[in-house]
């Protein structure tokens, strides 16, 4: 996002007129949309209808899957917008919805991953806490509602402002690529807004997540079998990969871009826009997190993937049993 003044900065104008970057990001969005809908559609079906009991981790995963599917359904609008030369034709309300979907997906995903890591920490490192299953389920549901409430409260300025901006010299109307300075009253308000996004919704959850997984791995290294320890390490690796590949670049560049823009008149807009594109990749990687985080999800997925081979194996076993039975009858005869 850039801020408008009497004249747009060169970085913003360059990005809006760069056809190659627009096409490259659109191609990434097309691939992400396809993988997102297929992977998260299957995940949601498994989590809702084929996985029980609904443990806290499963509840958090269902919440995460819904946010991922939301971004999957919103991306085609972003693709059309970019291929149309950054010209938004669907009005300010749809622009606000699209922007909210992008950012709620990112920050709800971050908070949900933190919640999954806390649940695993409590279950493995502190098993005596929250032992009652019903109590843990209620806490998980309330936690999901609190996540959405926190994210929407931080992003409230995006819901109350017209995020479209007309650029007569380019004959286009942008959506969230150029923000009005009067969206917030002063520089301090802008700094507080971005600080809340970067530090409250990203850095703090990131630190909590690292602490929980490091504690889990240390506990399992002392007490568990190699297979369980290996799964915990793979899960930690997948979560850290999502954070470092998808979330960290965008939030770091958002902070740097804001500081440079507000206090030095410079811009990192092109890099920030590309990092926003990369942040959507998390919706493709989340199903792998479900696979390593949930034993029930892992078992159901394996059943579906191996259904045909299992049927063949069962048939071979039946044939072997029949052959053995026939042989024993022949011996008796």
Order of helical and strand elements: EHHHHHHEEEHHHHHH
Q: How many β-strands, per DSSP?
A: 4
How would you classify the quaternary structure?
single chain
| Sheet with the most strands, sense and barrel status | 2 strands, parallel
Counting DSSP H or I runs of 4 or more residues, the number of helices is: 12
Taking all Cα atoms into account, the compactness measure Rg is 25 Å
For this structure, what is the CATH class of the largest domain?
Answer: Mainly Alpha
User: Which bin fits the share of residues in helices?
Assistant: over 70%
Keywords: Cell membrane, G-protein coupled receptor, Glycoprotein, Membrane, Receptor, Transducer, Transmembrane, Transmembrane helix
Organism: Scomber scombrus (Atlantic mackerel)
Transmembrane segments: 23-48, 60-80, 100-118, 139-159, 188-214, 235-260, 272-293
GO cellular component, one term: plasma membrane
Notes on the structure:
This protein has helices spanning 10-17, 19-50, 56-83, 91-124, 133-154, 156-159, 187-223, 226-264, 269-279, 282-293, 295-305, 307-332, and strands spanning 2-3, 164-167, 172-175, 178-179. It is globular and about 65 Å long. The chain starts with a strand and ends with a helix. The protein folds into 2 domains: 2-293, Rhopdopsin 7-helix transmembrane proteins; 300-333. It is built from 12 helices and 4 strands. The strands form 2 sheets. Strands 1-4 form a two-stranded parallel ribbon. It has a two-stranded antiparallel ribbon with strand order 2-3. The longest helix is centred in the last third of the chain and has 39 residues, at 226-264. 79% of the residues lie in helices and 4% in strands. It is mostly helical and 333 residues long.
């Amino acid at each position: 996002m850039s801020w408008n003044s009497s004249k747009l900065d060169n970085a913003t104008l360059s990005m809006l007129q760069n056809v190659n970057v627009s096409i490259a990001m659109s191609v990434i969005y097309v691939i992400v949309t396809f993988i997102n809908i297929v992977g998260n559609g299957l995940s949601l079906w498994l989590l809702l209808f084929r996985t029980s009991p609904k443990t806290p981790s499963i509840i958090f995963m269902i919440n995460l899957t819904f946010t991922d599917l939301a971004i999957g359904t919103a991306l085609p609008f972003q693709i059309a917008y970019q291929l149309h030369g950054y010209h938004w034709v669907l009005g300010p309300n749809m622009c606000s919805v699209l922007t909210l979907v992008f950012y709620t997906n990112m920050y709800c995903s971050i908070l949900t991953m933190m919640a999954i890591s806390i649940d695993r920490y409590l279950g493995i490192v502190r098993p005596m806490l929250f032992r009652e299953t019903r109590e843990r389920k209620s806490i998980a549901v309330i936690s999901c509602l609190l996540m959405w409430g926190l994210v929407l409260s931080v992003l409230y300025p995006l819901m109350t402002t017209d995020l479209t901006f007309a650029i007569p010299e380019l004959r286009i109307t942008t959506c969230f690529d150029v923000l009005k300075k009067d969206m917030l009253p002063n520089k301090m308000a802008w700094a507080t807004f971005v600080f809340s996004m970067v530090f409250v919704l990203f850095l703090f959850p990131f630190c909590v997540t690292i602490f929980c997984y490091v504690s889990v791995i240390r506990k399992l290294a002392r007490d568990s079998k190699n297979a369980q320890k290996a799964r915990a390490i793979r899960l930690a690796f997948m979560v850290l990969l999502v954070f470092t590949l998808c979330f960290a670049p965008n939030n770091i560049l958002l902070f740097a871009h804001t500081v440079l823009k507000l206090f030095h008149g410079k811009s990192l807009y092109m890099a920030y826009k590309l990092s926003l594109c990369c942040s959507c990749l998390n919706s493709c990687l989340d199903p792998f997190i479900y696979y390593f985080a949930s034993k029930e999800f892992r078992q159901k997925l394996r059943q579906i993937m191996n259904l045909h081979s299992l049927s063949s194996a069962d048939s071979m076993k039946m044939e072997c049993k029949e052959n053995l039975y026939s042989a024993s009858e022949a011996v008796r005869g």
